[in-house]
Automatic annotation (TrEMBL):
Major site of localization recorded for this protein: nucleus
Entry keywords, A to Z: DNA-directed RNA polymerase, Nucleus, Transcription
GO biological process: transcription by RNA polymerase II; transcription elongation by RNA polymerase I; tRNA transcription by RNA polymerase III
SUPFAM superfamilies reported in the protein's UniProt record: Eukaryotic RPB5 N-terminal domain, RPB5-like RNA polymerase subunit
Source taxonomy: Eukaryota, Fungi, Dikarya, Ascomycota, Pezizomycotina
Annotated GO MF terms: DNA binding; DNA-directed RNA polymerase activity
Stated name of the protein: DNA-directed RNA polymerases I, II, and III subunit RPABC1
RNA polymerase Rpb5 N-terminal domain residues: 7-110
Keyword Transcription attributed: yes
Family assignment from sequence similarity: Belongs to the archaeal Rpo5/eukaryotic RPB5 RNA polymerase subunit family.
A GO cellular component annotation in the UniProt record: RNA polymerase II, core complex
Keyword Nucleus: yes
Amino acid sequence: MSEGTSQEQSRLWRILRTTKQMCYDRGYELTEEECNISLADFKLQYVDESGAPQRTRMAFTARPTPEMLKKYTPLPRPGNPEPSADIGIIHVEFASEPSIGIKHLKAFAQLLHEKNYHTGMYVTQAAPTSSALKIIPSILPTVMEIFREEDLLVNISRHELVPKHTLLSPEDKKRLLERYRLKETQLPRIRMDDPMARYLGLKRGQVVKIIRKSETAGRYASYRWVV
């Protein structure tokens, strides 16, 4: 086996691990074994006889845990006393084509629609064309996220300099605002395109708790409103 093939195996193994860890950290049902697959097991499952990794085999789906469902269920209102969770099964695919255009995104969106998946994550070798990205809003209500492979080589949430981010449930968000007598617009903000916001799949209007280490206080929490 060539050195290039071996490097590609190791590279895609790291990307798959980060992707599964990301879904687990969001609250999807994945086992620790799946999230920390060994390189040897990766080769057994996803590499063909010639030694080439097969991206099509790496696709997976995952259901939200009860805890995740709670975090994505709006508070009851007079017109909607029993709201349903705005989350569901996620389907993740790894594009085997080196470049991604409109037809690829449309085909992926069609699959999500046919299978009734709530969220689709498309991991691509290169950024899709600008014209392809423009069609994503028209694909709604399907939720589609696109990550480049190079952005998943390292799990940013595991870096020692990145503080722990935790999404608050609507109930916890309400309690926080009541405790400090604040409106959500008065909270510091975090953009949806922030790397950790993308990692956790945060949506506009949500609030995330960020726990930082402090030499004096040990740990302290701050809160950010997603915009």
